[in-house]
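Box 3.1 A note on notation
Throughout this textbook, protein chains are presented in two layers. The first layer is the amino acid sequence; the second is a token string describing backbone geometry. Keep the layers aligned when reading.
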Amino acid sequence: MPEGSQDLSRIFREIKREFFRFADSYAKAVSGGANVTGKKIMEAVKKSDQPSDISIAKLISTVKSGVQYAGEQMIKSGADLVEQMKEKAKKQ
């Protein structure tokens, strides 16, 4: 295989690997955010006399906390990736 084709193939493998890494990080972050939201909703239900006692504001707040958790995990994952890229560049 010509050198240019090998380089292109290597680039596509790297892109594919990073895409799957991102997709895995995203899935874990969303799952974690959903777990946070679920736990907060369960806590709210336990503290209420009736499910109708749970306010819409409290539900919106719990969903926001889950979304915030997912966002924070994605930012952390991105920061980790940048650090890995810096380390890889130093080794080359």
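Residues 65 and 85 are 30 Å apart (CA to CA). The radius of gyration is 21 Å.
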